[in-house]
Design brief:
alpha+beta; 16% helix; extended
Length: 83
């Protein structure tokens, strides 16, 4: 399962959908948007917003992609425009 938006390069992936052996979680971002009853562990850093380290890694990944949006094979969905 993933979320994709048309004009960007962000791709949301859900860790529990992957088989065992995925890399460990490094940080939690945007924790200020969580429900009030959600308790976060201290196993990794919890950031209320986007930390500089995350933005740097995101920029480096986007540079490595040549500033392109990856083709997810979902081109047929472009015919459905949001209002």
């Amino acid at each position: 399962m993933f979320g994709d938006f048309t004009k960007g390069h962000w791709l949301s992936l859900y860790r529990q959908r992957f088989p065992a052996g995925v890399p460990p979680v490094e940080m939690r971002i945007m924790t200020r948007d969580r429900d009030a009853d959600v308790v976060l562990g201290d196993d990794v850093p919890n950031h209320r917003g986007f930390p500089a380290r995350f933005l740097w890694k995101l920029l480096l990944a986007w540079i490595a992609m040549g500033f392109r949006k990856p083709d997810m094979g979902m081109g047929h969905l472009n015919k459905f425009k949001s209002l």
